[in-house]
Design goal:
Shape: globular
Structural class: alpha+beta
Strand content: 35-45%
CATH class of the largest domain: Alpha Beta
Amino acid sequence: MRFTKMHGAGNDYVYVNCFAEPVPADIPATAIAVSDRHFGIGGDGLVLIGPSDKADARMRMFNADGSEAEMCGNAVRCVAKFVHDHGICRKDELRIETGRGVLTLQLLVEGGSVHRVRVNMSSPILRSADIPTTLPGDPPVRAPLEVAGRKLEVTCVSMGNPHCVTFVDQITDEWVHGVGPQIEKHPAFPRKINAEFVQVLSRSEINMRVWERGSGETLACGTGACASAVAAILNGLCDRTVLCHLPGGDLTLEWSEGGDVFMTGPATEVFSGVWNPSGAVR
């Protein structure tokens, strides 16, 4: 199986061009194997790029534990770069089919290759039942949540996948690695959830770390950054354009007056290779 390793702000996945390669027979098992950072290729998961009957390409994304996710903001930017740079569709604006629906992406091209991508992430989902969560409120803002012996106030948002945002004075490993996994699997979230921990720096700037559902801590989460910006705005902490600092790099988020959230960030191709059934890379 030929693959390409790519990352968006350090959120790295193994990408397979299913225009040219067959879809793996057992996708969850393949995702687990290739994601292993010691015995596999190494990554936060597996992304399949294939044909679509409604867009320029279709993206399917699988976490490092083999579970399929609805959407990944960093991955969809990399899919757009791959589709453009590898000649599948060389346009400056692409439509990519995702589990969230068809998204429109504007490509910032330099020297014939894509360096940054602006994505219309569509409108945030704010109704509790649709996120989904059993926490009160539509949207659930400053909702009470008891977890890990703490009484938290959280804000929940879906960007096609669910997010639980907690605002903290300082983001620590105790929050991310101690509290994050317990939020992920809390019974208030019937499909589990991504847990973001956010420090507000100003009306236009935040720091964020994330414990991702099915993958653990990652260096960046595009949908999580969008959800964190929306949560900060809903809580009256930020204006509608927010610069989000993540361990892997920066993303710019804008929640437009029309309701859609726009995300701009990098997309980087690292290397390509071949994965064989025994798990070796060459």
